[in-house]
Amino acid sequence: MTPKPGKRRRPKRETPEKLRGVQGFLKGAAGNAAGDIEVLPLVAALHNDVDQALAEVVRQARELGHSWDQIGQRLGMARQNAWRRFGP
C-alpha cells in the first residue's frame, strides 16, 4: 500500500531490535579498540552519523504529531532541551 502524499509511514517494528544489535556491536568494537588512536576519526564520523540520524528521527516524530514532551521523555531530557536541540 502506497502512503498518501504528505503522510509518512511509520518505521517497521524490527527497527528497534536492529538498532540494539548495532549498539551492542559498537560497544564491543569500542572495547576491542581501546587505546588505538587510529579509530578516533572513525568514531568521530560515527558520532556525526548518529547525530544526523537522531535529528531525522526527531523530525519525523514531530511530523507524525508527537509532542516535544514525548520526545524529551524518550531521550531522557526535558521537553525544553529537546526543543532547543532539535527544534526550528
How many helix segments? 4
Report the sheet with the most strands, covering strand number, pairing sense and barrel closure: none
Distance separating the two termini: 32 Å
Looking at how many chains there are and whether they match, the oligomeric state comes to single chain
| Structural class category | mainly alpha
Radius of gyration: 16 Å
Shape: elongated
The overall strand count is 0
Mean pLDDT level: 83
Fraction of residues in H or I helices: 55-70%
Low-pLDDT residue intervals, each spanning 5 or more residues: none
- Fraction of residues in β-strands: under 5%
Order of helices and strands: HHHH
Record keyword descriptors for this entry:
88 residues, mainly alpha
In short:
The protein has 88 residues and is mainly α.
Q: What report would you give on this structure?
A:
With 88 residues, the chain is an all-alpha fold. It has a domain at 37-88. It is 67% helix and 0% strand. Helix 3 (68-75) crosses helix 4 (79-86). The model has no long low-confidence stretch (mean pLDDT 83).
Task: Give the helix/strand layout.
Layout: H1 14-32, H2 40-63, H3 68-75, H4 79-86
Helix pairs in contact: 3-4
